[in-house]
C-alpha cells in the first residue's frame, strides 16, 4: 500500500484525498467555540493539536521526519496528502483549504475543537438555545438534541482517522493517504485512545477537562466522557 507524506503528531482530523471540497456541515473554527468554552480553548491553544500545522513547515520536527523517510527541508503545508491531519475540516467546503486567505485560515489551522466534536455549524444553535433555557428557566436540555444535530460523540473514531491510519494498523477503516509515522518507526506512535484522552499527571490530556455546567443532561455519551467528568476541573467563574 502506498505511503503518503504527512505527520501524525497528536493528530485527530479526517484524512484527505485532495478532491474538490465537498458540500457538508459548516465548520466555524475554534474561535467561535471558545466564545463560550473559553477555558477549554485556552487549554487547547497550549496543546500539540493547536500547533499541528507548524510541524508541516520546513526544518520543523527534523528528526521525526527523517526517521519516517521524509525530507525535513520540504514544505508540506501545501501537500494535499499531508494537511488533512493538521487542520480542521479539510475536504469540506467550509473547512480549511490550501491557499485560502491567511486571516480566514487562522481559526482552522491545527486540530481544532471540531476535529473531535464535529462541525459546529450543525449544533451551535442548539448550544445557544440550551444556554438561554438554563439561564431563564433553570432547566437543562436533553443531550439527544445534539446527537440529532450531528454533534460528533464518536471521539475514538475521530482520533483513529489519523493516529491509526498507517500500513499494518489493526484499525479496519484505514484509507489513503496513509501515515508514515508508525509504531515500527518509533514506539511513541503507538496510539491508545483511553490513555490519550486522560490526564494522568505525567501526560496531559488533549486539553484540560472542565466540569460541565448542566446545560445538557442525559442522552447518549461515551462511557469515558462520563468518567472524565467525575474528576474534571471546576470551571472558573
Commentary on this structure:
This protein has one domain: Orthogonal Bundle (Flavocytochrome C3, Chain A, domain 2), CATH 1.10.1130.10. The protein is 29% helix and 2% strand. It has 10 helices and 2 strands; from the N terminus they run H-H-H-H-H-H-E-H-H-H-E-H. The protein has a two-stranded parallel ribbon with strand order 1-2. The longest helix has 14 residues. It is globular. The chain starts with 29 loop residues before the first helix and ends in a 7-residue tail after the last helix.
Shape: globular
**Secondary-structure element order, N to C:** HHHHHHEHHHEH
- The value of Rg in angstroms is 18 Å
User: Please, what is the average pLDDT?
Assistant: 86
CATH topology: Flavocytochrome C3, Chain A, domain 2
How do the strands line up in the largest sheet?
1-2
**CATH-assigned homologous superfamily:** Flavocytochrome C3, Chain A
Parts with pLDDT < 50 across at least 5 consecutive residues: 1-21
Helix percentage range: 25-40%
Question: What CATH architecture do you see?
Answer: Orthogonal Bundle
Number of domains: 1
Strand tally = 2
Under CATH at level 1, the class stands as Mainly Alpha
Structural class: mainly alpha
Tell me about the biggest sheet?
2 strands, parallel
How much beta, percentage-wise? Answer: under 5%
The number of helical elements comes to: 10
Report the end-to-end length measured between terminal Cα atoms.
Answer: 52 Å
Amino acid at each position: 500500500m502506498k505511503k503518503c507524506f504527512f505527520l501524525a503528531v497528536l493528530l485527530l482530523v479526517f484524512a484527505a484525498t485532495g478532491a474538490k471540497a465537498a458540500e457538508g456541515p459548516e465548520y466555524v473554527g475554534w474561535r467561535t467555540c471558545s466564545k463560550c468554552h473559553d477555558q477549554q480553548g485556552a487549554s487547547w491553544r497550549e496543546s500539540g493539536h493547536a500547533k499541528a500545522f507548524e510541524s508541516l513547515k520546513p526544518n520543523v520536527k527534523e528528526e521525526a521526519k527523517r526517521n519516517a523517510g521524509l525530507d525535513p527541508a520540504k514544505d508540506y503545508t501545501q501537500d494535499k496528502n499531508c494537511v488533512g491531519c493538521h487542520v480542521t475540516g479539510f475536504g469540506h467546503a467550509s473547512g480549511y483549504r490550501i491557499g485560502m486567505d491567511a486571516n480566514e485560515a487562522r481559526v482552522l489551522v491545527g486540530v481544532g475543537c471540531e476535529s473531535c466534536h464535529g462541525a459546529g455549524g450543525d449544533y451551535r444553535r442548539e448550544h445557544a438555545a440550551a444556554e438561554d433555557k438554563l439561564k431563564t428557566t433553570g432547566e437543562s436540555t436533553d443531550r439527544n438534541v445534539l446527537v440529532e444535530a450531528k454533534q460528533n460523540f464518536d471521539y475514538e473514531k475521530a482520533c483513529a482517522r489519523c493516529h491509526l491510519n498507517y500500513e499494518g494498523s489493526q484499525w479496519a477503516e484505514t484509507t489513503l493517504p496513509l501515515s508514515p509515522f508508525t509504531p515500527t518507526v518509533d514506539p511513541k506512535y503507538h496510539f491508545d485512545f483511553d490513555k490519550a484522552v486522560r490526564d494522568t499527571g505525567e501526560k496531559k490530556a488533549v486539553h484540560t477537562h472542565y466540569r460541565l455546567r448542566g446545560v445538557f443532561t442525559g442522552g447518549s455519551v461515551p462511557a469515558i466522557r462520563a468518567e472524565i467528568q467525575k474528576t474534571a476541573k471546576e470551571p472558573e467563574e
